[in-house]
Amino acid sequence: MSLMKSKKAALKPKEKTVKPRPGTNRIVVLPGWRKGEEQVFFHEWGQHFIKNAAGEIQAVIPCAEATFGKPCSACESLNRAMRVTEDDETVELLKGAKSKQGFVLNALDLDGPTKDDPVIYELGKSAFTQLVDTIEEWGEKIFDAEKPQIIVIQRDGKGLNTKYTVQPSPKGYDLPAGTLSKLHNLDEYVAQENEEQTRRALSAISTVAGLLPAPTASADKPKSLDAVGLDGDDELREVEMRGAAVDGTPSGASVSLNEELDDLLGDLEATGT
Fold first, then answer.
1. Rounded to an integer, what distance in angstroms lies between the CA atom of residue 53 and that of residue 91?
2. CATH number of the domain to which 34 belongs
């Protein structure tokens, strides 16, 4: 029964993070999700996106070092591959798969479609550092239980020239009743790695480095980000779900497997096994 629950959890698409959009973003930072540790409102977070020479994502894996401060098998594999690879373009491609330090937190995205429901908000190191400075300056006003201060994040530029500016708004926000009961468990969110995912990522790194032959082309291979206009998170879901459509709608095979798992779990629970 434990095995079936674990497998069903692995099949379930992960909640997509919200990142600052170009221009002005207004958010409300919410307290921590752990009872008794509400002051810990964030969790470290990082991912490896392994792409081939065409810019197509071949595998995605959380970075254990960026997320938990532990040795990361993907980091080690990338470093080994770069040491034995002589082609400069391939070295740069492998460097691009390295994880950047990021952070996730619960927040209200006041300019988003569901502004009164907490989302998992993702910030890079630069923006998060400014957020911490703002919290140090404004203190408890940021986390006021009734009318927390609004935070304004300005995002300008693109790519390596992207710049973030974080500052408090003079306005507070009336926190809707029940908001704090909807907080996402960030411990569960960042615990995404599994053995199959790790094997796929390590194999993809070896293939990109030329240590393994490239897989045979197939009709269902991941599409280029530029070709379909998706971001990394959308591609992650496409790669991980395998049988799912790009719009997130499960295929017949994945729906059938979920139904079978539901039936099996129901039978096991009924018999007390």
1. 11
2. 3.90.198.10
